[in-house]
Each structure stands twice: as structure tokens, then as C-alpha cells.
Amino acid sequence: MNNKINIKHQTSNIKHFNAFTFIETLVVIAVLGLVLPVLFSILFVILQQQLKIFRITEVKRAGDYIVQVLENSIKNNAYTIHDNSSEICEADPDPANPFPHNGIPSSFRDKYNSSFSINYNSPDLSLDYPDPVAPAPTFAFAQGQLNSSKVSVSSFSISCARQSIYSAPLVSINFSVCYNVDGSCISTRPEETASLEYQTSIKLKSYPTQ
Fold it and tell me: Which UniProt keywords apply (predicted)?
């Protein structure tokens, strides 16, 4: 009799676990089938935006650096401006050549007549100068390519103007910078492209007035 009571007692203590039914399993699978594609599409868009932001940041960093180097080197070192044959945007008050004086610079010279130039060979932009002739000091800025291999300078133009004999020559620079996508600024995927336009005007700090 006691054995029967114990068996009944042990049987009553056994827990019963409810499992998913076949219908419930199908419902869960259907819900996951609807939710997962939405989550993946959201994740894909986020990754695209992150790639776009990264490339724009890289392009802006390169463009800002180029502007800073060009502004400092021209403003603090250029004394006269030259094209391929002669001085331009000069202080010469020749009546046959009235102000304003305009031109397209190919090089600059400092007070010691040492020259430096901005050279554009698409897709690269560089700042170059030969060894200065003694006793002229060396330039305080480094020469060489201004953009990295990740970034291309897709266009570049430079000009100068001088309004009067006593006004400072003004050098205007325009250029475009883009992220290098297999040697091009163009891609079939919009998130891979990034480009910025830059414009700057630089007044010479020192310049001749006669």
C-alpha cells in the first residue's frame, strides 16, 4: 500500500513541458522571414552611409590640406609672379599696359629670386622648387605631391590680378578633389563617389611697388 502511495506521489511531482506546435513553428518562421530582410536592408543602408561619410571625410581632409599649404607658401614666400616668359601682375605703371594687370602664373619668386611652382599633372598636384642659389635660404615649406593616392585632383586652375601699383597681387586658385575609385572619380555605386570643390584667394604678403 505504501509503495502505491509513493509511486503516485512521485508521478504527481513530474513537470510537464509544453512544446511548440507545428502551427506555432510555422508562424515564427513566417515572422522571421518578414523581419530579417528589413533588418538586413537597414544594415546595408547604414554601411553605405558609413562608406560615403568616410570617403567625404578623406576628400575634405586632403582638400583642406592642399588649401593650407598653397595659402601659406604663396602668402609668405611669393614676392613676384611669373608666367613662362616674364613677370605678370607686376607693379609696372606703363601707360601701354594699364591696370588691372592679370595673368596665369606658372611660377613664383621670393625676395632672393628663388623660384617655386605649383604643378598640376592630373590627377596629382605638387609644389616644387629647385635648390636655391646661395646665399638664398631654403624655403620653409616642403616640396612634393600634395594629394595622397586615395584622392585625385580632378581639375585645377590658377590666375592672378593686381588692381593698382600699391595694391597687393591677388592669386585665385580653383580645384576639385575626389576620392580615387580605380583611377576615376566616377562609380556606378553612389556611395563610392565623393568630391568637393575648392576656391581660395591669396594676397601676397610682400610685393614690389615699382
Answer: Membrane, Transmembrane, Transmembrane helix
